[in-house]
Amino acid sequence: MTTRKPTSTNQRNRQVLDEYCGMTYALHLLGGRWKLLILYKLEQQKRRFSELKQVLPHITDRMLTLQLRELEHDGLVARTVFAEVPPRVEYELTASGHALSPTWKSLEAWGNTHRQATETMPG
Predict the structure, then answer these.
(1) Per DSSP, what are the bridge partners of residue 93?
(2) DSSP-assigned states of every residue in the chain
(3) Yes or no: is domain 33-119 CATH 1.25.40.10?
(4) What integer pLDDT is reported at residue 2 of this predicted model?
(5) pLDDT at 63 over 80
(6) Preceding omega of 86 cis (within 30 degrees of 0)
(7) pLDDT at position 121, please?
(8) What are phi and psi of 89, to 5 degrees?
(9) What percent of the chain clears pLDDT 70, i.e. is strictly above it?
(10) Where are the domains of the chain?
(11) What is the mean pLDDT of residues 36-50?
């Protein structure tokens, strides 16, 4: 019996991830420098691309576009296109994206605590 080969890299990655634990799956979805920061900034309000660029000034246009596409594909961000001239696009968290809020709030609290602890360490 032959198995059908996945048609895309994403499908292959998903098949591999299905074999691993939830932590591996979550890290695959959220891994990288920008995804959690994008989600964090979208928790506060819906934002347009230019607004995200403004609150994340060190991200390139290309990287922001790629990360938003991946987050949308993974069901964490919703993209709404308004039928206007010029076109207006807004990004916002989905219910799954909002469910991650306690995760980044915990990371933020840990980061603040760790920073303060290490700043007071001698050496």
Answers:
(1) 77
(2) -PPPPPSSHHHHHHHHHHTS-HHHHHHHHH-SSSHHHHHHHHHHS-B-HHHHHHHSTTS-HHHHHHHHHHHHHTTSEEEEEE--SS-EEEEEE-HHHHHTHHHHHHHHHHHHHHHHHHHTS--
(3) no
(4) 41
(5) yes
(6) yes
(7) 80
(8) -125, 135
(9) 85
(10) 33-119
(11) 96
Distance linking the first and last C-alpha atoms of the chain: 63
Residues sharing a CB contact under 8 Å with residue 108, sequence separation 6 or more, in sequence order: 40
The encoded tokens of residue 31 equal 């891994």
d(CA 47, CA 91): 5
The pLDDT of residue 78: 98
Maximal C-alpha separation, the chain: 64
Q: How far is the C-alpha of 14 from the C-alpha of 25, rounded, in Å?
A: 9
What is the SS3 assignment for 18-38?
HCCCHHHHHHHHHCCCCHHHH
- Global confidence as pTM: 0.80
